[in-house]
Design goal:
two-stranded antiparallel ribbon, binds 5-O-phosphono-beta-D-ribofuranosylamine, alpha/beta
Length: 229
């Protein structure tokens, strides 16, 4: 195996995707699968919101999707139990949170230990939670980005798999920064799933190592650029 893609045939990982909204990360996974770059099969997409555009994307690509409306359940645990049941029935081994706007219960994490990935539009552990592009601007950071990590019971707190860094510009608004970050989300999420499919992810405590991975460039990034050399 080289530092790029595995040369051996990798089996297709059965995915279950949880989405609540637009589903552009779901679309990126679909596109990578259809282009033969991602050895995965989306067994089911679960939406807690019947109006989610993610459902339209599923219709277009003939991907099985189910609406599980959290408001129809008496508790978070019962809602989660229903999702676990469906994911297990569909033979899902890796759960992908793609803009899923519900907090999962401990029971859900026990059902899929270190088998749930999430994407977050900031460089964790900075700016966990919501409205993070505005928080990054308000703080005045010069770089932001996105993080794919294993989800655990904390908020955006599990072991980090890949991060992408983007610059923050003086004229940025939360929307322009979010758009720049989202483009990178669409690149790193399929890559993280592909590493998983190739069984190249090793987890030691908080640290994730990609077996046979390329080293990151040693070059530092500066924003604004340095002018004296
Ligand atoms: C993304 O920014 C993701 O990082 C966050 O929610 C947003 C979902 O976007 N968790 P989409 O639904 O994938 O377009």
């Amino acid at each position: 195996m080289q530092c790029g893609r595995a040369t051996v045939m990798t089996k297709k990982i059965p995915l279950g995707v949880l989405a609540s909204g637009s589903g552009s990360n779901l679309q990126s996974l679909i596109d990578h699968i259809e282009a033969g770059r991602l050895d995965a099969e989306i067994r089911v997409v679960l939406c807690n919101n019947a109006d989610a555009y993610a459902l339209e994307r599923c219709r277009k690509h003939r991907i099985p999707a189910r609406v599980v409306d959290h408001r129809a359940f008496a508790s978070r645990e019962l809602f989660d139990r229903r999702m676990i049941e469906i994911l297990n029935d569909c033979g899902v081994t890796l759960v992908i949170m793609a803009g899923f706007m519900r907090i999962l219960s401990p029971e859900f994490f026990r059902a899929f230990p270190l088998r749930i990935m999430n994407i977050h539009p900031a460089l964790l552990p900075s700016f966990p939670g919501t409205h993070v592009q505005q928080k990054a601007l308000d703080y005045g950071v010069r770089f932001s980005g996105c993080t794919v990590h294993f989800a655990d019971e904390g908020v955006d707190s599990g072991p980090i798999i890949i991060q992408a860094v983007v610059p923050v510009f003086d004229e940025d608004t939360a929307e322009s920064l979010a758009e720049r970050i989202l483009k990178e989300e669409h690149r790193i999420y399929p890559q993280a799933v592909q590493y998983y499919a190739e069984e190249r992810i090793e987890i030691a405590g908080r640290r994730v190592r990609i077996r046979n991975g390329c080293a990151a460039t040693e070059k530092a990034l500066h924003n604004p650029p340095l002018t004296f050399y």
